[in-house]
């Protein structure tokens, strides 16, 4: 399907929904079902399933939650879905058949937004936005247009052009729990790993942020909007 045909009077925009919370996914399905010119053709509960379904269904748009509970995260799933050598993809990454990914998140954390855009996402939208904004963003993404809000672009794009700390998804999870005051033992228990592993990852976080203490790490992370 060509981008210009997507969402026309005769051909609705096809959407694959990836959301790990069943209740939220059901609500989004009902909401999108009420939108004219939009049709949900598949749903996934995790990143791996989203990648597999995208390869088979070839939707116009994948509505991707970044905060997936376990396994493949939303950023990596986005990267695999939009890459030129993805299963079933044509030689031209802009040609019909390569789904556009629209990120749907709870927080407008700059680090997550930047990672998603670098991974190939067509845009970003908060779950708190009005339904009309979501519908418009889906239609825009299907046509290959960016759906990044001006306020977000103003903050994020300059950061993408300049050096900034780059943390992995696991490091961001550790840093977030660190900011909440959890001890190393509590962080290890929450992430189902060992205290030694957490300590090693903390050293890597300190090195990337150029700091030597928890307090400094949290302060620098907040300065760079790495934390929600």
Automatic annotation (TrEMBL):
PROSITE patterns: HTH_LUXR_2 (PS50043), RESPONSE_REGULATORY (PS50110)
GO molecular function, one term: DNA binding
Domain of life of the native organism: Bacteria
SUPFAM superfamilies in the record: C-terminal effector domain of the bipartite response regulators, CheY-like
Family matches, as Pfam families: GerE, Response_reg
Residues in Response regulatory domain copies: 14-142
TM ranges: none
Domain HTH luxR-type as annotated: residue spans: 160-225
Record-listed 4-aspartylphosphate modification sites: 65
Gene3D superfamilies from the UniProt entry: 3.40.50.2300
CDD domains given in the database record: LuxR_C_like, REC_NarL-like
Any single GO BP term: regulation of DNA-templated transcription
Nucleotide-binding recorded as keyword: no
UniProt keyword annotations, A-Z: DNA-binding, Phosphoprotein, Transcription, Transcription regulation
PANTHER family cross-referenced by the UniProt entry: TRANSCRIPTIONAL REGULATORY PROTEIN NARL-RELATED, TWO-COMPONENT RESPONSE REGULATOR
UniProt protein name: DNA-binding response regulator
């Amino acid at each position: 399907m060509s981008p210009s045909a997507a969402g026309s009077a005769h051909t609705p925009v096809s959407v694959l929904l990836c959301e790990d919370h069943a209740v939220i996914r059901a609500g989004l399905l009902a909401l999108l079902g009420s939108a004219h010119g939009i049709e949900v053709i598949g749903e996934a509960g995790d990143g791996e399933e989203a990648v597999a379904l995208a390869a088979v269904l070839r939707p116009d748009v994948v509505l991707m939650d970044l905060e997936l509970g376990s396994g493949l995260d939303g950023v990596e799933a986005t990267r695999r879905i939009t890459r030129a050598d993805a299963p079933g993809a044509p030689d031209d990454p802009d040609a019909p058949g390569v789904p556009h990914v629209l990120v749907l998140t709870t927080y407008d954390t700059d680090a997550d937004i930047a990672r998603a855009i670098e991974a190939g996402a067509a845009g970003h939208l908060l779950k708190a936005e009005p339904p009309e904004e979501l519908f418009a963003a889906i239609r825009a993404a299907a046509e290959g247009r960016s759906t990044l809000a001006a306020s977000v672009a103003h903050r994020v794009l300059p950061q993408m052009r300049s050096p900034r700390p780059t943390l992995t998804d696991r490091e961001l999870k550790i840093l977030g729990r660190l900011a909440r005051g959890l001890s190393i033992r509590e962080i290890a228990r929450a992430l189902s790993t060992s205290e030694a592993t957490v300590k090693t990852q903390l050293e890597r976080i300190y090195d990337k942020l150029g700091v030597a203490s928890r307090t400094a790490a949290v302060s620098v992370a907040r300065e760079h909007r790495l934390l929600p």
